[in-house]
Amino acid sequence: MQYPSLPVGAFLAAALVLVPLPWHWRARNIGTLSIITWLFVVNIIYGINAIVWNTNVDNPAPVWCDITTKLIIGANIALPLATMCVCKHLELVSSNRQGRFDHVDKRRRIIFDAVICFGIPLIFMALHYIVQGHRYDIVENFGCQPTTYFSIEGIIIVWLPPLVFATATLIYAALALYHFVCRRMNFAAHLQNTSPALTTRRYLRLMAMAVTEIVWGTALTAFNLYNNAGSGLRPWISWQNVHSDWLRVDLFAFIELPPSFIKSMFLLWWAMPASAYIFFLFFGFSDEARREYGKIIKAFRKHVLRQSTKDVSFHGSNLPSARHRGLKITHIPLVSLADDKKLSNERSSSRSTPIPFKKFNHVTFPNASDILPPKYAPDIEAGLSDDSHSDQMSDSLVSWGHSSHQPSQRPSLSYDCPHPRALTTSIVVGAGPKPSHPYVRPWSPPTVLPFRSDRSTS
To answer: In what helix (H) or strand (E) does residue 287 lie, and over which residues does it extend?
Structure first.
């Protein structure tokens, strides 16, 4: 293939322009849907023509050329009309002429935009027959091209309408931008009242896309008009004179064409793929596009790769995060269910009258009412206690638990806290290198009702 970039560029543009189609279809935005439709159709035509007429000027498909040349004429009219509809809608929602759009207004706007974007191009496709001097042209590597009898009538029917619609688009865009500047402080709230589906970012993106497309298309249309006017206008003598040899098909090989004409053909041919790329750049990286990409990837993993798409989440956990610097789990005390049950019984018995000591399995336990909880020390629970205090506390508790109990002898700690705390199981989280004593049970805020500070002791 002499120019492989032609079909590749055309088919790639046709594929990319379909990416924003789902969310514009859900929004029922006829203007952008029309842009997508016409750009897709024209780029498909360009790609097929580049393959079929690669290094040849044969005429294998006359019917295909009759249809595609008319569609190319219609696209040159439809794209400026579609951008005009987009800017007209943006100007309307940014003004104060209508407070809110109901279902009837939306349906009326859809019908109006559909007639403008698809009905009027069909009319101009039919009017093109008036200035169609012969059937079509075939240019090597480019395929079928529409022909126009270049005269005053041809300028009015083919080249002037896109320039008029482009001017109307720029006027609507200027008015929409003016409304945005005047209401920039409360513009988001104004859009929510008039069109809830339209945010400020979408508003500005649509306007930027429409203005960019219309400036790009207008420049190329003006260049094409200037390029054809260089050879002069032909006189319109009569209908019979213009259509005297209408079934003629002119064939143009590259070797017969001047280099300047070939360069202009390349420029005008690449206008449609470039318009599709511009459209994709405005909508292919938006928030809606990223959500659609996520849905496609999830569906591919689920149905093609047969992978699970469930995400494992650890949000809501009470465990401390190990990602913080200097935070580590140093010790998890092991407490049996029997100890927890014994502790619960002691708490419940503390509200009643004291009971005398009794022996159980050759171990002497103190009276539950005589046990006062040690004062709370936050640094002990965090594993930051001093070595001497930790050792003193552990030795005191161990010796007190295995010796003969006296009511006045209670283990004491050197930490002060205004409120007593209950004895519970917790995870000791420490930032220091040395953990707390393994036999010391840490203290934490109560998970049950705390001890009363005014209880009686005996």
So the answer is: helix 287-303
Count the alpha carbons within 13 Å of 258 in the hemisphere toward its beta carbon.
3
HEC readout, 237-270: CCHHHHCCCCCCEEEECHHHCCHHHHHHHHHHHC
Look up tokens 């040159």; give the residue: 76
The 10s digit of each residue's pLDDT in 170-200 is: 999 888 888 877 776 666 676 666 665 667 7
Backbone conformation region of residue 140, classed left if phi is above 0, alpha if psi is from -120 to 50, else beta = beta
Take residue 458 and report the two structure tokens written for it: 């005996």
What is the crossing angle of helices 120-127 and 62-94, to 10°? 140
| The overall pTM is greater than 0.85 | no
Task: Pull the structure tokens for residue 221.
Answer: 């249309």
Secondary structure (DSSP) of 106-160: HHHHHHHHHIIIIIHHHHHHHHGGGG--SSEEEETTTEEE-----SHHHIIIIIH
Mean pLDDT of 300-327: 56
pLDDT tens-digit readout, 278-299 = 999 888 877 777 777 788 788 8
